[in-house]
Amino acid sequence: FTLSGADAGAFEVIGTELFLKAGTALDFETKTSFDVAVSVDDTAVGGTPDATSTTYTLGVSDANDAPTAVALSNTLIQIGENDDTSSAIKVADIAITDDALGSNVLSLSGSDAALFEIVGNELFLKAGTALDFMTNPSLDVTVEVDDGTVGGTPDATTIHSITVIDSNDAPTAVTLTNVLAALAEDASTAAATKIADIVVTDDSLGTNTLSLTGADAADFEIVGTELFLKAGTSLDFETKASYDVAVVVDDTTVGGTPDATSVLNTLTITDANEAPTAVALVNT
């Protein structure tokens, strides 16, 4: 017996039986049938071969295979921390590579999975998600697909990250440190006197403008990030025992006006021993 036909190499004859060879790979998606014919020949008589069967076709039926891949397209790769998230934001379309049999279930995992949701075959960032570059500069999620009847669990995954872009935020506070709390009335004010260092709490973006407010703001000045009592200020405990001032910070492109104000700082003027200024006679 001999074999012929397009797929003869996949078959073998044992005795008077025709077999599909062991180890033959069957895949409906790439080959739906195998064709073979059997020939018989008695070399002592007749032709060569003496007879050939009709072609035999072995059909391969489709079976449910596990999905082999899940991919994202039309992806959102970055988002501003001040972007509006009052509605869900589409992140990507989800495509599954599969044989269209069985039932595939999509799910999410990863450090930020709770911030995402799947609707149909689309991935969304949930409505109301709080975006903050300082605390979470990258939103990471893994999309998983699984056909529970075949393959592993999950059958395929893909990872996606959205970069959160830093945005200019308004300064949230201004404080005074290394504060000079008191000054004697006889202290020299020929040069400006440093009162405090000014510390602004901000994201280091935008431009902050410092200014002064308070009853005695005109007696103070800001140089860089330091607060000074102006040179030439006249100190006299008897007529003015304290000076009050507050520091204001404002980034005019964001927030309110001003964005933050320090607590009111009071510079106390202490009394000093002064020479008598006059002697007078009474009851003369």
Automatic annotation (TrEMBL):
InterPro entries (UniProt xref): Cadherin-like_dom, Protocadherin/Cadherin-CA
UniProt keywords, alphabetically: Glycoprotein
Keyword Glycoprotein appears in the UniProt entry: yes
GO annotation (BP), single: homophilic cell adhesion via plasma membrane adhesion molecules
GO cellular-component term (any): plasma membrane
Membrane-spanning parts: none
Annotated GO MF terms: calcium ion binding
Domain Cadherin: 1-69, 156-278
PANTHER family the record matches: CADHERIN-3, CADHERIN-87A
Name assigned to this protein: Cadherin domain-containing protein
